[in-house]
Amino acid sequence: MPVARVVVDVMLKPEILDPQGQAVQRALPRLGFEGISDVRQGKRFELEVAGPLDEAALTRIREMAETFLANTVIEDFTVKVEDVDGAKAES
Amino acid sequence: MPVARVVVDVMLKPEILDPQGQAVQRALPRLGFEGISDVRQGKRFELEVAGPLDEAALTRIREMAETFLANTVIEDFTVKVEDVDGAKAES
């Protein structure tokens, strides 16, 4: 059976301070990498969906991302369907 | 000055056990979400690049990802340029 992959990216909202990202950004010049003005660090979830990836399944996954994977008080999320061959489609 | 955004995704290699992803996958049915056969959890870095995003800058970012953002013994990474004018642009 074909397995579809859905990617959920969860990032802190732009107005929320991101100390992890700041730590990375400050470390870069010390390590010899200049020219990066900002770094934000977030989470990426790759979900393998068994069964058809129809609109109902995507709605369910968006609900799951909103209630469980992301804390929407401080985080934004995006749901993308990823072609296992590498191409991507925004949903 | 235009600022370009580069996204570095860091995921555990497929052959490496991912206990965080497994914990999420096992929690989903308890929360009422069926049909997700596998979950992998990784990191997403959004880098704002000051200056031109030419091939030299991208090469530098790939080097940075390889030596600093990812542990290439157990992790794979991808580097993507993201269009800031896209749907996610600030309004």
Descriptive labels:
homodimer, 91 residues, alpha+beta, Mth169, Chain: A, 2 helices, 4 strands, 30% helix
Could you describe the 3D structure shown?
Chains A, B: Its EC number is 6.3.5.3. Chains A, B: It is found in: Cytoplasm. Chains A, B: Belongs to the PurS family. Chains A, B: Part of the FGAM synthase complex composed of 1 PurL, 1 PurQ and 2 PurS subunits. Chains A, B: It catalyses: N(2)-formyl-N(1)-(5-phospho-beta-D-ribosyl)glycinamide + L-glutamine + ATP + H2O = 2-formamido-N(1)-(5-O-phospho-beta-D-ribosyl)acetamidine + L-glutamate + ADP + phosphate + H(+). 2 copies of one chain form a homodimer. The first copy, chain A, has helices spanning 19-30, 55-69; strands at residues 3-12, 36-50, 75-82, 88-90. Chain A is α+β, with helices and mostly antiparallel strands. Chain A has one domain: Phosphoribosylformylglycinamidine synthase subunit PurS (Mth169, Chain: A). The first copy, chain A, has a 4-stranded antiparallel β-sheet with strand order 2-1-3-4. The mean pLDDT of chain A is 90. Chain A binds chain B through residues 3, 9-11, 14, 21, 24, 27-28, 31, 33, 35-51, 57, 60, 63-64, 67-69, 78, 90, and chain B through 3, 9, 11, 21, 24, 27-28, 31, 33, 35-51, 57, 60, 63-64, 67-69, 87-88, 90. Strand 2 of chain A pairs antiparallel with strand 2 of chain B, so a sheet runs across the interface.
